[in-house]
Amino acid sequence: xxxxxxxxxxxxxxxxxWGGQKISSVxxxxxxxxxxxxxxxxxxxxxxxxxxxxxxxxxxxxLNELVEVFMGDLVGEKVYNQFGDKFPVxxxxxxxxxxxxxxxxxxxxxxxxxGFEYGKTEMWYVxxxxxxxxxxxxxNQAIDKExxxxxxxxxxxxxxxxxxxxYDGDVxxxxxxxxxxxxxxxxxxxxxxxxxxxxxxxxxxxxxLKGRKRELHTDEALEAIDFQKTDNAxxxxxxxxxxxxxxxxxxxxxxxxxxxxxxxxxxxxRLDSFVIxxxxxxxxxxxxxxxxxxxxxxxLVVLPQMIQQVELHPKQKAKFLEVYIE
Length: 326
Known about the structure:
There is one protein chain. By secondary structure, this protein is mainly beta. It has two domains: 7-224, Jelly Rolls, CATH 2.60.120; 245-324, Jelly Rolls (Sandwich), CATH 2.60.120. It has seven helices and 22 strands. The strands form five sheets. Strands 1, 6, 16, 17, 18, 19, 20, 21 and 22 form a nine-stranded antiparallel sheet that branches. A hairpin with a 4-residue loop joins strand 16 and strand 17 (254-260). It is globular and about 65 Å long. It starts with 6 loop residues before the first strand and ends with a strand. The mean pLDDT is 96.
């Protein structure tokens, strides 16, 4: 069997009623066939939405197919023993040209109770935000189910929601159970569990071209929602050039960020996990052994667990997210 190598993947672009053109205009990614491109799934093992390898002798294979063949050599022994043949992290770009629906995701326990494999905990890194952009992250006060339903029924839900202004480089952690929504003018990188379960609570009374409203999931959401007040909704972090800083550390994924101004050698030998390196600004080359790959903004590579040392060589300056399972 030939050796594994850093894997490049073909994005899955998705048209959304609230989508825009920032994925192409800001990141220069080709989604020219879409009017309102809301999402690009960059790394996916979700059933029915697999990403395909584009480089090397494994080109044309689905990511989950490689997990099945290479197992721990690709994802790490502990990761493989826990998640099996499904790649456990989903990475997206999301362009919200309008408000996304106010929604919530179930945790693992509730998801399995309802016949799904996993719930959905996620995080957002803001790649670019317009002036006055904002989002919703949880409640601005503790509330109970009865009061929540009263606000919802009276169409006053926004009165109890926590609105946050958004700036380039902001980070938000969204654990399962937290009510949330992206607002207009934000382009984000989303790292999440491999799950596509969403309970839509409110959709701003929006209709499609045929005048139809999208389905809401009021009853399903009720059991999933965490009704506590959200404090410290925005992750506070600092940057030191050429050094990785942890943004989120959870059971489901760990995400760090590194700002590069010079070549940096990365040693992942302590990890029993794959590593995703995602470029969110600038450009840089990934160098391993005697090979190299240029990674442009919005692109990522998946490093198999068996590749433990690489170098990142920026062109002037670049910024990367680093994702793995601890």
